[in-house]
Each structure stands twice: as C-alpha cells, then as structure tokens.
Amino acid sequence: MARSVIALVACMFLIAVQPCMAQDGSSTAKPQGSDETHAPARFDIDAQPLAKALRAFSEATGIAVLFDDALVASLSTHGVHGNVDPRDALRILLVDTGLEAQFASMNAFTVTAAHVSQPADGEPPSARGARDVAPDIDGTRAQAIQRAIEHALCAHKKTMPGAWRQAMQLWVDDGGAIVEVAALAPSGNDDRDAMVVQALMGVHLPSVTRRFNPVTVLVAPSPDGARRCTGGG
Q1: Model confidence pLDDT, tens digit, residues 34-76
Q2: CATH class in words for 41-113
Q3: Which terminal CB of the chain, N or C, has fewer other CB atoms within 10 Å?
Q4: Which helix (H) or strand (E) holds 126?
Q5: What's the CATH code, domain 139-230?
Q6: Nearest residue to 62 (alpha-carbon basis) of 105, 22, 30, 36
Q7: Does the global pTM surpass 0.70?
C-alpha cells in the first residue's frame, strides 16, 4: 500500500510519495535491502545534530544515508519518535534543514540540498507541491486535504500554524474521516499536542486518502501561518 508524507508548512502543503532508504555507511543493525529493513519500525531519535541523527537512523535500519559532513555540520534535527516506516522517518529528520534524500541505489540514499522549482505564474504552493512531487494525487485532492487540515488547526488560537512544529501520522477510514492521530515529533507543548489531536479527529479528507494510510503530516513554523488562518494569505 502506498504511503504519503504531507508537509504542512504554515499551510503550504506538499504531498510526497517516493521510495526511501538510507545510512552513513558505518554499522548496520539489519541486512541492507531486506524486506525487514524497509518495514515500519519504532524510532526514538531525539533532537540533536543532524549528522549524529542520520548515523542513528542508519544503525537502526541498516539502510545507507550518504552525506557530506560539511553539508550537515551546522544543522540539527527535531528528531522523530514513533512507529513509522524508514522513508517517513528520514523525511521527518530532514524537516527544516533545507536538505532532501535522493535515491542513490537499491540500498542507499544521498542527502543533498533540496531542489526548489520555480512555480508557474499564479500557481499556489499547494498545487505546485502536488504536481511536482506526487503526480498520483491530483492538485484538486491535495488542496482539499490542505483546506481540511488547515481549517481544523485554524479553529483554535493555540493550534494555528505559524510558530510551532509537529510531525504526526493520520489514519483515515473508508469515508475519509480521520480516526486516529499519532505524534511522531511533538511540538514541545503537551497541551497544544493534545489540542491538535482533538482538532483533527473526525475531520473529513477526500476518501482516496485512505489509500495512503498512514499519512504523515509535517507542520513547520512560518510567519504566514496565522495570517493565512485569518484570510490574509
């Protein structure tokens, strides 16, 4: 079953459905390339320097993440905690770093500077993300998912996107309703995290979203968040 990572960056919405793998090349906890290597697993990687986190990821998965020490030297990750497949875990580790993982071989990913394509004139960021990264989810559905999550988070002042970050997984039932929310990287405020879960439970997304269960949602800080919630963006 396909899975999806959604990046909700102050309501700028990207959907990514890509293969994943990863390791710094030292020790391996599992044989590289095995089915077990890419199966969902428990990750407990704390916020820390990115290079150290990528090595921890490699040791936990047996997948190679190849990176230039100079590229990641000054970068940190917010970490990841929860049961998730390696692809999603790696994406979460790279949130806010300006880096992305590129497929290098059957058993390895290379971490490089993220490529930012220029949008067509008048094209909203949400549609651009759906078009460039996940052609199997059309722009209309991507924007519908964005609006539903954005509306739910904007309903309460404490959950408005803009000044906080959080990674979570959503499970959707046959009718498109969110029936389960699990935190992968908490925002640092337990009250807000609980309110986010409460706000998203029962929210209806396009029913096709169920094909990507669980959907990983990344909410990252941006000064535009609150303004978009009030209709200014």
Answers
A1: 445 567 788 999 999 999 999 999 888 888 888 888 889 999 9
A2: alpha beta
A3: N
A4: helix 125-133
A5: 3.30.1150.10
A6: 30
A7: no
